[in-house]
Amino acid sequence: MNSKIFDSLGLDALDPAVYIFVLLGLVIILVIITILTLRATNKLKKRYDRFLMGKNAETLEDLIKNRFEELEYLKKENESKTALIQEISEKIRISYQKAAIVKYDAFNEMGGKLSFALALLDENNTGFVLTSMHSREGCYTYIKEIIRGESYIVLGDEEKEAINKAIVNE
Questions:
Q1: C-alpha closest to that of 131 among 121, 119, 113
Q2: Distance (Å, rounded) from C-alpha 16 to C-alpha 19?
Q3: Beta partners for residue 134, in sequence order
Q4: What is the number of helices (H) and of strands (E) in the chain?
Q5: Is residue 143 a part of any domain in this protein?
Q6: Does residue 25 fall inside a structural domain?
Q7: For residue range 124-163, what is the model confidence (pLDDT) as tens digits?
Q8: What is the pLDDT of residues 53-70, one digit of tens each?
């Protein structure tokens, strides 16, 4: 086979069968590359189909938009719940959290420990002590204000004990 192209490349001395085998080898390599490319494409298509799960582009866009709307709603809900928790924490801080009661006999002639001193205090140990004394003639109830664990009115031993118990028991 005489060809000017082969002569210029210096390939005129080769047998034409060599050319055929070289070309056949290239074709086989290209077929293998094509098969590998098709397999990779099929894997990607399967992943894409699994991602869409029967949805078209419009429904996918709607789905993403709905997720963002839900996210915005959840952010607002979280902010409102945080504010509500803050408000509840404030209310709890000033509510009565500590309580203690001391029962005693106010008068020697009475038994059964019918008298008592009840202390109710908040987080800052501010509140009141309620004292009830029972006697044969009747029942007398007193209330004394407590500010930071102290009273401006003289306290009885049982009242002091009730306040200390409330502070310690927290």
A1: 119
A2: 5
A3: 139
A4: 4, 4
A5: yes
A6: no
A7: 889 999 999 888 888 889 999 999 888 888 888 899 999 9
A8: 766 666 777 888 889 999
Contact (CB, 8 A) for 81 and 120: no
63 in Cβ contact with 122 (< 8 Å):
no
Please state, as a whole number, how many other Cβ atoms lie within 10 Å of the Cβ of residue 129. Answer: 26
Identify whether the C-beta of residue 144 lies closer than 8 Å to the C-beta of residue 128. yes
Place of tokens 């293998």: 32
- Report the candidate in 134, 135, 155 with the shortest Cα–Cα distance to residue 143: 155
Domain assignment present for 153: yes
How many domains are there within the chain? 1
Element (DSSP H or E) covering residue 134: strand 127-134
Residue recorded with tokens 């200390």: 164
Determine the structural domain holding residue 115 and report its residue range. 98-169
150, amino acid identity:
E
